[in-house]
Design goal:
Blueprint lengths: L3 H12 L20 H19 L17 E6 L8 E6 L3 E9 L4 E13 L2 E6 L13 E4 L4 E3 L2 H5 L7 E3 L24 H4 L2 H8 L6 H15 L1 E2 L1 H4 L11 H6 L4 E2 L1 H14 L4 E8 L12 E10 L2 E5 L1 H6 L5 E3 L1 H4 L3 E3 L13 H6 L2 E4 L8 E2 L4 E3 L3 E6 L7 E5 L21 E4 L3 E5 L2 E7 L4 E7 L3 E8 L3 H10 L6 H13 L3 H8 L17 H8 L9 E9 L2 E13 L2 E8 L2 E7 L1
Parallel strand pairs: 9-10, 18-25
Antiparallel strand pairs: 1-2, 1-8, 2-3, 3-4, 4-5, 5-6, 6-7, 7-8, 11-12, 11-15, 12-13, 13-14, 16-25, 17-19, 19-23, 20-21, 20-24, 22-23, 24-25, 26-27, 27-28, 28-29
Helix pairs in contact: 1-2, 6-9, 13-14, 14-15
Length: 589
Amino acid sequence: MFNQNEIIMSTRNLQNKRAVNTRIKTEVLPDGRYSTLTWLLILIMMISFTFLSAGNPRQKDTSHWRNPTAEIKQVFTCDSKLKNPEILKLYTDNSYEFLVYQKGRNRSEMRRETGTYTLKGKTLMLKRDGKPKVYSPRYKNTYFISDNGKLYASLWDKFVNKDQLLLTLNTEPNYLQPFYIDPLNGTIVTNKEAPAKIDLEDLVKNLTRYAKNEEEKVNILVNFIINSISYDYAKADGKTSPVKDGSIKGMLAGRVRMGVCGDYAIMTKTLMKMANIEAEYIHGSARNSFNQIQLKIPDNHAWNTITVNGEKRLYDVCWSDCVNGGWLNVKPSIMIRTHFPANKADQLLENPITEAEFNYQPYIYASSSQEIENYYPKNAINHVDETFTMTYDKIIKDVKVRSVDTSLFEIVYSEEGGNGKKIYRSTQIDNFILSHQDGKTTITVPVKNRVNGLIFDFGEAEFGYKVIRSSKTDDFKYAVSSVNRNHVDSYFRAVFSAVFLSDIPKLKELVGEKNPVFFNQKGKLTLSKDLLDKFRTWDGLMTCLQIRNNFESVNGKLECTSTTRSIEMFGKEFQIELNEEGYQIVAMK
């Protein structure tokens, strides 16, 4: 027989889910019967296994993540006043689903009961598959269906307890979607199995099932993407992203649903093609900030062309999501003010503009559907004496002019302590001269500061200019004299200005007397004539800082072993390092 210690040990093993691996000794009495203690042990084992197999009522849904092949026959929903939707779907093959949606922290969570049903007269009977997964006072084994499509627990409730209505027939299209699509916001529900088991083609098929034409399909899918994910600022800044699964399924159905511009564009192309709509991924650059007018081809960006009814159209789903609307089906003549594709044909313009024309144009802010009239000057950066004049090829009576805090033009990267989300104040300017002639509007503004940020607001569009009250030569002299070697932009402007001005002593001070990029061991300038000519015709525009992390395999894992920082100018890559004196150019490739 068991002693006391053996019984305790066996019970603990059961509680630790290791009972199946424990050798249990049982005593059989001479007449073949088990002892009382043995029967007690068997009872303990049965109770323990029952407890372990019962599971938690909030166990994850293990149902099939595919829409049933049968068609929906009827849909019944709970009172719309309830916070969480509850839905009963009856299918033509006599199967049913009972769905309960609950609002989670980020997205709705869903529980699903499946089984078969029978209908006898006005009595609807449900028989579930397996163990209960849904717990709701509106989920019954039997319902009474009234003539007007209302479900009660019984005929008695229908006539006596009318306030006990459980579910009502509903024909709204959003309730006809597959169980994994939230009927209220149209996004995929949160579930551990969803990223792996969602079928994208099945998803697209169901989302666009009731679309009447290609345009409706495009709008449905674009809105689905916008509602499903949000912009991943951490990933865009090169920081650790909270998104673990960067696949399309992961971004659409994971717990954290975020992406950057390229993710939006790839997702748009993929879903459109599954809907038999031609779409292309467009890579290029975009300008979305006033201070970027002094940068050549500012930020890497991605968007799409989508062909609707044989016509190629431009869509920036990422920008549409970030600014709460617009940037969908944008006219090419408007898109080119902010988006410059790497492939010239993707401008969709009869007369495409050049990279230089894009770089030099002012900062233009307008609705993505608003045409921009011709304007002058075309260059965003202007050197003047005392006044600045702008002309717009349209009569506008109500024009506003604002001055922007010029610290906007002091580019400080995030790793240098800069704040990309900083708000720069603007001040209304009233002492300007407004005139109209020959169908044009002309505004002349007096300038007093060395650097001025001016915004001209015509109501339908805004134009931003950097106006400098000095010559280009004097401006470059100022850059050399006011250099901050702890800021990449300030340092490079000073170096390039020193070469432009042929100020060799200052250049040696900035890069070092024997810097191999610029000088030989005797301190003589060694730049090629071609490169020197480019320096001396420099227009003041620069490219952004490039940061590249170099990875190597260490013990079978990729690890970042070094980081390279550089600026690409004049067809060369100038690499820099930070030392005690500040930044210094160390190589040119």
